[in-house]
Amino acid sequence: MKIGFISHKNAVRSVMAEAVARKLLSDLGIKAEVFSAGVEPAKEVNPLTIKTLRDKGYTVNGLYPKPVSKIPYRKLDVVVTIGNEAKERCEFVVGHKRRENWLIEEPSESEESFKRTLEDIESHLKGLLKLS
Fold first, then answer.
1. Is a pLDDT exceeding 60 seen at residue 132?
2. Coil, strand or helix at 81
3. In the chain, what are the domains?
4. Cα dihedral angle (18, 125, 30, 66), rounded to 10 degrees?
5. Helices (DSSP H) in 28-89: which residue ranges?
6. How far apart are CA 11 and CA 38, in angstroms?
7. What is the reported pLDDT for 98?
8. Residues 95, 98, 1, 70: is their CA dihedral positive or negative?
9. Which of 116, 123, 132, 131 is nearest to 102 (CA)?
10. Taking a C-beta distance cutoff of 8 angstroms, is the pair 32, 21 a contact?
């Protein structure tokens, strides 16, 4: 299985989704390749994203913003766009078995806001994988 998470900048939400999905799928023994990208990638991952992920025990190695063209978007089984801008600008990503759009807002610059965003992503991922 190949899963891709696409957001606007690939500096917060899609990066969080990539890290969470990798851990969750690995913990479940599900073999998968997980990617994230941005329609207008930032220069770096937001430092609060890294801190929030580390604080919850997620691995942050290898996470960096990249454009959609740098992931195998034509070979993805599942595509999750995060936010309407990514949804509207990724209509060219076709041929997958499943597509979802998660309406998760970009967090404000507070640690608490980043924690809430991560919890929202964890909840959405459990729903995607049909976990309680």
1. no
2. strand
3. 2-128 (3.40.50.2300)
4. -20
5. 47-55, 84-89
6. 8
7. 87
8. positive
9. 123
10. yes
CB 37 within 8 A of CB 71: yes
- How far apart CA 9 and CA 36 sit, in angstroms, is 10
Predicted confidence at residue 26, as pLDDT, reads: 94
The predicted structure's pLDDT at residue 103: 94
105-110 mean pLDDT: 92
Taking the C-alpha atoms of residue 115 and residue 99, their distance in angstroms, rounded to an integer, is 25
Helices marked H in 1-132: 13-27, 47-55, 84-89, 111-128
pTM: predicted TM-score of the whole model, two decimal places: 0.94
Q: What are the φ/ψ torsions at residue 58 (nearest 5 degrees)?
A: -90, 150
Condensed to tens digits (0 to 9), the pLDDT of residues 29-82 reads: 999 999 999 999 999 999 999 999 999 999 999 999 999 999 998 899 999 999
